Amino acid sequence: MKQFEHFIDGAFTSGTNGKSFENRQPHDNALIGMVAEGGRAEIDAAVIAARNALHGPWARLSVDDRSDLMRAVADGITRRFDDFVAAEMADTGQPRTMMAHAFIPRGAANFKVFADVVKNVATEAFQTPTPDGAGAINYSIRKPKGVVGVISPWNSPLLLMTWKVAPALACGNTVIVKPSEETPGTATLLGEVMNDVGVPKGVYNVVHGFGPDSAGAYLTEHPGVDAITFTGETRTGTAIMKAAAEGLRDVSFELGGKNSAIVFADADLDQVLEGCMRSVFLNTGQVCLGTERVFVERPLFDRFVATLKERVEKLHPGHPEDKATSFGPLISAEHRDKVLRYYNLAREAGATVVTGGGIPQLPADLAQGHWVEPTVWTGLPDTHAVIQEEVFGPCCHVRPFDSEAEVIALANDTQYGLSTSIWTRDLSRAHRMAGAIDVGITWVNSWFLRDLRTPFGGSKQSGIGREGGVHSLEFYTELRNICIKL
259-451: what fold? Predict the structure, then answer.
């Protein structure tokens, strides 16, 4: 049985309070191991270590040296690729193919991308006239913000954690990571890599635990934490923002979404279906950018629904090691109960259940896992909870529309504003629509096609701030102006 310990000041420790909790596999509910639960003492120790590291060897590294270390971390993840795949597969229950081809490689790639970004993004300089005619030069420099608290989610643990840790470290900060209690594996394993490649102690710290009255709350409340970055649900983001108000600490949030796909009748149907199968059902629908509302122009509606049904019913749930598995479990019994509640609400409201809507029949060795069926509905009113609230499960509602103006209003009729995808062969229409939808990122004839140099984040209740490329540097550094009188 595995023991998941905190990683503080370059060493693994079970902490001082003796508390621990279980970590179980979502696909069969088998016990993986025990996780140390951090409290105030562990957060205090991590903050002391992180603050001390800001004044030690880490602070004396050049940008080139830090960049080289970030590349070494990426190479270290790659060397232990199978270990990271196994850890994340056990924690999430998702198929090996998805971990090996997307989530773990992207986690390593984050370090390489920001190793380059931090060396190649210029600041600014101005020649300034002065009354005596001699002039002045103003130029800006970037300095690390300090200790960054990173609270990462369970749906893509390594990828989304390194999306924050990599730019934070590349900019010279130190970090304290509070991974989700559901997925402690890869954050812990990354501590071993940090030691292996020579990252100074105290630069990368991990404290396990929960949110309220546990490690998460103590991290966000700690006055020694200079900035907080979080990916997760909007309600938790609100609580973190309140805590960060003490001391006026900076925050960067990627929060919930109720994302739409807008399909026009002229779209390439095979391309649309491939995109929607990914955007709705990848990672069992547990993707912040995932699609839960699909709007289809009326002439294509019936054909789209019928063909989507055929493809959904070919998804194959199973053991994550099985090459035939194309569909995994939900992360926990609690989350399954939440998703099933929405399934029941849809049924009670008279939705047409195109496919799914329940719990699949699985072999005995998987029967205790957190499974639900991939589900498609039609016929719900636009005001229904299933249309307005984030389900975060493998489901979507498909609704017909008749005009651009109508579908723009429908797509924007949500408290969220994270992403949308637009499917059409008409380039002028694509530009019109993309400018009219209130989201942080719009894909045209694609989904989840990411250039890590571009701004990423949500509008409305889907987040605060932007990350990616220079936009990450804007959060993880303080920009200082220096004026030199000539």
Answer: Aldehyde Dehydrogenase; Chain A, domain 2 (3.40.309)
